[in-house]
Amino acid sequence: MTRLEKFLPLHGIKVQHAFSYENPYYPIPPIKDNRLKDIIEQSYTNTRIYVFIPAEPYELHAFLEDLDEKGLLDDGDYIVVAIFFKIFDESNRDGLIKGVYYPAEGPDGISQRIRYMHNVLMLFYTSAMSPDFNGFKIEAKAYLSEPPFNFDSGLLEELGYPIEITEDAAYLYDAVMLYAKALNQTLSEGGSITNGTDIISNILDKTYQSITGVNRIIDKDGDTIANVSVFSIQRNSSSDIDYVIDPVAIFQERNGTTVYAAHKGVDIQWLGGSPPRAQPLA
């Protein structure tokens, strides 16, 4: 949380508290304990927005259950912003509601989860946006069957285990291409292939388009500014529980500024009808 504690005040956001908890946190009796309840007890009187970084989705559900037990999720006065350092699984859009390792119990459990999730915004890395990425995945899969890998995926696919080329492969491809372009620029400027300083300088502070189609920025310190999408619960009759988790906005870099761009025709379904106050009334 250290970076967030430094970053948020720069944008006018006061950090009231910062806590950590040991994970994994299993919310199943009798091994469930009070570590999340203790955090809530120490913070709820002067906090309305919780930034929560769960290791697993079931930890988010456990945190929401403890907030609800305190009576904090009844009126939409509190919100949880959950940060996931991964890409959202679009093939399982209601899975974050139902739960996998900590499934909701029966219709009442599902109804409870749906109510909880109206108090939550979720941040995930933005998924691939380019149709060319599908071609990249097909080509990458084909390379696996060639030397030096010689990997035959046919048997696994016959058994129902298809080989999935994830976006991690795209990031590796991007890294190699960035290096190759920086090396080419260094050589064209009369530099040497062994001069790492010059090569790195031709990588820093640059904007590039990932093979996924997403525009990315490498800042002067070599950090990549992530493309992040905002997700929330949405009513959708395609699910057997009538609700799914869908993207509602994206954070984009425009002229050096991070901009919140809401998706057209999609609204956040706030429990109280509007965003909660950032701070309780005196």
Give a verbal description of the structure.
With 282 residues, this protein is an alpha+beta fold. The protein has 2 domains: 2-126 and 227-262, Response regulator (Rossmann fold), CATH 3.40.50.2300; 132-224, Response regulator (Rossmann fold, 3-Layer(aba) Sandwich). Helices cover 32% and strands 20% of the residues. The protein is built from 9 helices and 9 strands. The strands form 2 sheets. A 6-stranded mixed beta sheet has the order 1-2-3-7-8-9. It has a 3-stranded antiparallel beta sheet with strand order 4-5-6, with no helix packed on it. A hairpin with a 5-residue loop joins β4 and β5 (215-218). The protein is globular and about 65 Å long. It starts with a helix and ends in a 20-residue tail after the last strand. The mean pLDDT is 89. One of its GO terms (cellular component) is membrane. It holds the Pfam family ANF_receptor.
